[in-house]
Write a structure and sequence with these properties.
The protein is mainly α and 212 residues long. Helix content is 80%, strand content 0%. Among the domains are: 46-97, no CATH class; 117-212, Tetratricopeptide repeat domain (Serine Threonine Protein Phosphatase 5, Tetratricopeptide repeat, Alpha Horseshoe), CATH 1.25.40.10. The N and C termini lie far apart (106 Å).
Length: 212
């Protein structure tokens, strides 16, 4: 092979080596960037924490704003920080004694903690302020059910059903009360009343099966 041919090969091989080295360097850089992307992720922030901080700032800026204080209390409640939520709802009641949301949610928390007498007090307060407050009636009925106060369930359900006859949860509570008392005929009537509004309601269907 001539000296010229060797020189030409040398000229060709040097640029190729440079290209290979550049490509290798690029791959290394991309690998490093990819690893950093997954290893050095920014920590995620819990939306509830952000929301909590936001409402706390608003309440601190304007302590008499009921809506912001209710939002703060409810956020704490959803985070299961009942003691702190209770403090905020109590502050609301100092500003507005008859606030429905504060009284109702205080009842919900008391019920969750099985403080049934306390739950009853708050639910009754809500119903004294608004007779057709269905979810307060349901909460009160469930509280009575947990204590086996079946006649009280029927009484509270009947009062609200006179105003809101299509509320199936109240019919179900009555049905369960009658069933526990052994009055199968009246229990069957209540389960059927539920099926008039929700033909495939699971609890009503299963209740009727039990009563056969």
């Amino acid at each position: 092979m001539s000296d010229l041919s060797v020189k030409q090969q040398g000229k060709v091989s040097i640029p190729i080596m440079i290209i290979i080295l550049v490509l290798l360097a690029a791959n290394i850089v991309m690998s490093i960037l990819t690893i950093r992307k997954y290893v050095a992720k920014e920590p995620t922030v819990d939306p509830q924490i952000v929301q909590l901080k936001n409402y706390m700032e608003k309440v601190n800026a304007n302590p008499t704003d009921i809506n912001n204080r209710l939002q703060l209390a409810y956020t704490l409640q959803m985070m299961n920080q009942y003691d702190k939520a209770r403090e905020q709802y109590t502050e609301v009641l100092k500003i507005e004694e008859g606030n429905l949301a504060a009284n109702y949610n205080l009842g919900v928390m008391a019920q969750a903690e099985k403080k049934y007498s306390e739950a009853e007090e708050y639910y009754k307060k809500v119903l004294s302020l608004k007779e057709n407050h269905v979810i307060a009636a349901i909460g009160l009925g469930e509280t009575y059910l947990a204590q086996e106060k079946y006649e009280d369930i029927i009484t509270v359900a009947d009062k609200v059903l006179e105003l809101e006859p299509g509320k199936t949860d109240l019919h179900l509570l009555k049905a369960r009360a009658y069933e526990q008392q052994g009055d199968t005929e009246k229990a069957r009537e209540q389960y059927n009343a539920v099926l008039k509004y929700i033909p495939d309601d699971t609890e009503a269907v299963e209740g009727l099966k039990r009563l056969k």
